Amino acid sequence: MGDAVCVSTETLPGLVTGTAELRRFLHGLPGVDQVGAEERAARLATRSIKKSAKAEAIDLAISMVDLTTLEGADTPGKVRALCAKGMHPDPGDASVPKVAAICVYSDLVAEAVRALTGSGVGVASVATAFPSGRAPLDAKLADTRRAVDDGASEIDMVIDRGAFLAGDYAKVYDEIVAIKAECGEAHLKVILETGELVTYDNVRRASWLAMMAGADFIKTSTGKVSPAATLPVTLVMLEAVRDYRARTGRQVGVKPAGGIRSTKDAIKHLVLVNETAGPDWLTPRWFRIGASSLLNDLLMQRRKLTTGVYAGPDYFTMD
Amino acid sequence: MFEYAPAPESRDIVDIKPSYGLFIDGEFVDADTSFKTVNPASEEVLAEIAEASAADVDRAVTAARRAYDGVWSRLPAAERAKYLFRIARIIQERSRELAVLESIDNGKPIRESRDVDLPLVAAHFFYHAGWADKLEYAVRDPRPLGVAGQVIPWNFPLLMLAWKIAPALACGNTVVLKPAETTPLTALAFAEICRQADLPPGVVNIVTGAGETGRALVEHDGIDKVAFTGSTEVGRRIARSVAGTRKRLTLELGGKAANVIFDDAPLDQAVEGIVNGIFFNQGHVCCAGSRLLVQESVAEELLDRLKTRMATLRVGDPLDKNTDVGAINSAAQLEKIRMLSEVGEKEGATRWSPPCELPDRGFWFAPTVFTGVAQSHRIAREEIFGPVLSVLTFRTPQEAVDKANNTPYGLSAGVWTEKGSRILWMAERLRAGVVWANTFNKFDPASPFGGYKESGFGREGGRHGLEAYLR
Amino acid sequence: MTDRLSVRKTYKLYIGGAFPRSESGRSYTVNDAKGNFLANASRASRKDVRDAVVAARKAQTPWAARTPYNRGQILYRVAEMLEGRREQFTDELRATGLAKNAARAEVDAAVDRWVWYAGWADKVAQVTGAANPVAGPFFNFSTPEPTGVVGIIAPDGPLLGLASVLAPVIVTGNTAVVVAAEPAPLPAVTLGEVLATSDLPGGVVNILTGHRAELAPWLASHMDVNGLDLTGAGEELAAECEKAAAENLKRVLRPAGNDWTADPGTVRMTTFLETKTVWHPVGV
Predict the structure, then answer these.
(1) Contact residues for A179 (Cβ-Cβ < 8 A; gap 6+)
(2) 0.80 cut: is pTM over it?
(3) What is the ipTM of this complex?
(4) Which of A2, A159, B92, C146 is buried most deeply by CB count within 10 Å?
């Protein structure tokens, strides 16, 4: 794929620039047949994960959660409570793993960093005029810089979907490169907002565009647009990171976010990872799930497995 | 590594009796001789099955004739429809049981019997039920043929039964059906369903047995119609035996379908289509995409992807809900697959299978792909009817068409490209009864199915399928 | 004044658009109904069958690739040409024993039959095709396609009978090898001349005269023939041919009581049509 384009493996990650060249490359990627992709995702969703495999999957899923609060009403108190929950999801059971990160707005990063000090739980900050991304580049850069300065270990930026849909791939690309430069040590997750890109062809192109611009992770959604993370969207993105690594040797992570509320959904995603990108991606380093209410369902299912009886919400904390 | 724990579907839902009789005139009756049906995944004997003699077949045909003359042909069409709706509903109600039974007797993965076979079986009865009292809108002056003798294969036992019985009954015929000798159990369960539905005795008769029973049925003077699904070799014999009689005949026979992949195909979906085309139901599919024709410019990349994908196929216990490829249906079929695969190696093609552990007991064959295959190789010409894919390459669309059509068969074909006009260009030129474009192995009761050339004649499904059972 | 000595016609075969004699060099005598000599018709051999099948095969793909509209126009042109030769055909039919009015009526009916089938060319797919409402995100449609090369054992009706079996085979894009009515082959040869001047591509119709019992089995067993119309074969010959046809699973139209004045229906077309069903996903 792409061999017809003047893009070599060496030049690909940074040097495919200019809208015409990007367009040629991205539109030279194999198409995605919607029905076929959805069929594949649906079939993988029928995998039956039981007993020991389920226990393993639940703990893995908990450790992959980016526990998220992204409300206008967020307060330092709310963030502190969420951090406490992320470090010790089930106060009564120390064997429950901690989550991967707490995900907040940039102005609350400092609060989260304080609360999580020494815990090993990361702080992810959405940035770049989340969720719409409609702000001047200066503002986006300032937003990012502030989050990084306050100690965020991960930046979840949004792409400019308007520019993408208008075909201005270079603008999207340059913006990602610019944000990446502001990130320093922090990992950059690039949110594609797939619900606004609409087609799987666009999801695949946006995935490659983000990876070529330097994304450490590609992320489905802000959670503010419906549909958010769906199985076929995650499938297409997993295919993209698989192919990108095969092509360039660089591994990129995937983060579905929004709409994953049940253990069943989470496990379906893990099956998808396992059978699409492969087991190399089955760690919190390379796969994250952006969620809030999912965590408690994972905990309830976990307790069902250990006690043998169905649990109820009163027995789990609601932060 | 994320290992899936065993997730077996419960066997308790089925109650297999030690022995089964023939279903004639609404009753289960004994026969003088019997044979055994085994679970191909374990070689365990499941039950003793009555073997119908020529005299038994004669009794069944007589019962069917009596039911045709006395009851079925006099019944208002709307009432016929209601019987079929009733059967469709009972199948839905008992679908889990029937799926498990099918997987035990046939060896196919429960995921397929549960998600493909059984839903289609019920849909087939439901679809044809609605036709029963609307035939005059489909065909001018529709009249039933009388008694149909039907012989079906072992690859989709209950689904092929549905393909045969549903349209026959909807059109006002009565039937005598012979299931395959290695997979009689779901047909016998269907006999029970006919009783639960209060279907008048003799409208459906099930005679179990092997080739001799089938011969007695298709050669019986008292039938008006022969419908057969199976090998081209047997189909030819049947066509000869029917020659010069007034029996109507439809045949759904073998295939060696080309699955054509262009360099602009949606590659990930094409890989799924290839896998679904040849490994679905262990490749025991007459319309299987057993010849992969891939454009040379994309061959290497596609094969890499295909092999990676094949390595994720889970081969094993058919009742495990995570199994993708189950057991080969019989020792004889396994032998045939082995033999042709060895021929493929001797002919110089390169054989590859993903590492996969096969169970000790039962009949198993790892998913296999042959590369470097030429049109002249036997594995490119003969129907293997197993999980064995032969890969050939082409350079231009015309070459793809020429190679795809260069076979005496003509049942199905696949074409993968994102270019709409090329899809239609290819679809027009492929000499096959079913063309799947950017998909493969899709079935629906509303969609006519059947072959060109030596893949047989007549269609099953859709409005076209009705013509096979009407004068 | 003396009567002018007439110039007789040599009745030859019609293969691949040309009028060769039988490669065997044989002929057989054709008499009129009163037993008077009419002509020496070519007596085709198995090799003529072979050549005719080759010609039919070569013509088939391009003929099927013509637009239905074009095929319809050509069949209508056949009717026009036939109309222009009404007198000639009437005479030839009278020689077979028909009274003048009956002969004239049969010629008229034959012309009308070509017209009737000409109109089917661009309608048969609409009548026999379908868009199928499958339960899934797929567009699914069925279209009829010609079976390929069809062998026709023509009935005794030398003109109307021939038109009634030949037109439905070729109108849909098949090509034909016809074994003409054995006792009265001359109108078939003259029809060949009509076809040759009707813009019908050579090889679409090939007409052999000779002995049915000799020729039919070769057509029936030929592995490059896809369909067989046994209308003109007797019970025994038909059974033999049907058995031979099983070898490559030819589509066989069996002899049946043929009333050429009745509504022909579509069965003569549909027997030599294959239904092709195409699936495609519906997505963005």
Answers:
(1) A127, A128, A140, A141, A144, A155, A157, A188
(2) yes
(3) 0.97
(4) A159
